[in-house]
Amino acid sequence: MLAIACGWLGAIAAHFAWDAWLTFFPLGTGAITLVQVHLRVLAMNGPFTAVVLVLLLMGRRIEGRNLFKQLRLEAESGTGAVTPEEVTILASPTRRLRARLAAGPRGYFRLGRLQRAQIALAMERWHREREELDRPLESEQELRGQILALRSAGG
């Protein structure tokens, strides 16, 4: 509820700011108008864009830390769905891409399917830890089964 209220107030503030800008700084004529329009867009959209970028980076960082944690816990469980060597690779998008490219043209897609399933398992574990899931614990076991089947099929 708080997030919704803050978003609503932010939208009201942004709308007010646009209207106030036109009231206090009416558009002129000629070349100055072109500059003024661009300055207005930069001044009005810049702070909102910066907030969105900060939220995006914070979310990526939080998700990355929790993904690493869940991958590590899964590797330590000994089920074979995630090996300790795979944890750092799976936790990094760049390392995942490098591993796929190193697997060659045919292995690229097979390894991609395996990595997506492993990440889905880690995300399932994270959501379960946060008590955000209504699905039974068997869904994690199904994901582990899919991962082991992909492994036995060659990736």
Describe the structure.
It is a single chain. The protein has 2 domains: 2-57, no CATH class; 59-152, no CATH class. Helices cover 83% and strands 0% of the residues. The protein has helices at residues 2-24, 31-77, 84-90, 93-102, 104-129, 138-152. The chain is elongated and about 70 Å long.
Reconstruct the topology from this structure:
Layout: H1 2-24, H2 31-77, H3 84-90, H4 93-102, H5 104-129, H6 138-152
Helix pairs in contact: 2-3, 2-5, 4-5, 5-6
Total strands: 0
Tell me the overall shape. elongated
Strand content bin: under 5%
Low-confidence stretches: none
Largest sheet: none
> What class would the helix/strand composition place it in?
mainly alpha
- Gyration radius, in Å: 24 Å
Mean pLDDT, to the nearest integer, reads 88
The helix/strand order is HHHHHH
Which key features would you list for this structure?
155 residues; mainly alpha; 2 domains; 6 helices
Compact summary:
83% of the residues lie in helices and 0% in strands. The protein has 155 residues and is mainly α.
